[in-house]
Amino acid sequence: MILPGLVDVHVHLRSPGGEHKEDFRTGSASALAGGFTTLLAMPNTQPPLVSDDIWRVAQTQANSQSLCDVFLYAGASAEHLDQLSLLCMHAPALKIYLDQTYGPLRVRGLGALAGVMAGWNADKPICLHAEEESVAVGIALASLYGKHIHFCHVSRKAEIELIARAKERGLPVTCEVAPHHLFLNEADALRLGPYGDMRPTLAAPSDQA
């Protein structure tokens, strides 16, 4: 089978700030070894990519150090709403963390979320880290603002069902599923110990079906 270069829209390359784990060069080399030629990297770095200046510096590093095409998401922060008008001109998409993950980048409260949605004045996707009840919030945002909402690493059957119903209603929503949520469950988390600790957490076997 011959395929064109693949695109991975959800990677964590850890630069800036986490280069002891991975950097643009090592991450892009691994991607190329697996047949991926374009990567979109998440903004929950140190510092997070929530201002235009920080985003530009990081994207310049990605351009100079990566072995394949790498584009960086902008990160949403209630403390940097004034930056969204600049970020939306340069970044390919916006990432909003509605639930707890590894790091402080998170938008809390409907008021802050409404400010982010209004500030992202671009016809570009908004990607959500949303779990369980937060998925319903994301669907409501798609309906209210008419923006393309993409749900990252969906892990529960109920979440998929909510998104499917939203698509049936014609709402501009899409989603992705990570391989570990397809092939592993909560029993594997116990077996794997710290290697099974992730966000979203591994779910019940019934969620894999």
Task: Describe the 3D structure.
The chain has nine helices and eight strands. The protein is of the alpha/beta class and 209 residues long. The strands form two sheets. Strands 4-5-6-7-8 form a five-stranded parallel sheet, covered by helices on one side. Helix 5 packs parallel to helix 6. It is globular.
Question: How many H/I helical runs?
Answer: 9
Q: What order do the strands of the largest sheet run in, or round the barrel if closed? A: 4-5-6-7-8
Structural class by sheet pairing and helices:
alpha/beta
Radius of gyration, rounded? 17 Å
- Helix share, percent: 25-40%
**Count of extended strands:** 8
Please give a quick description of this structure.
The chain is of the alpha/beta class and 209 residues long. Helix content is 39%, strand content 15%.
Any key phrases for this structure?
209 residues, alpha/beta, 3-stranded parallel sheet, 9 helices, 8 strands, globular
Question: Secondary-structure blueprint of this entry?
Answer:
Blueprint: E1 6-11, H1 24-33, E2 36-41, H2 52-65, E3 69-72, E4 74-75, H3 84-90, E5 94-97, H4 110-119, E6 126-129, H5 133-145, E7 149-151, H6 157-168, E8 173-175, H7 179-183, H8 186-192, H9 205-208
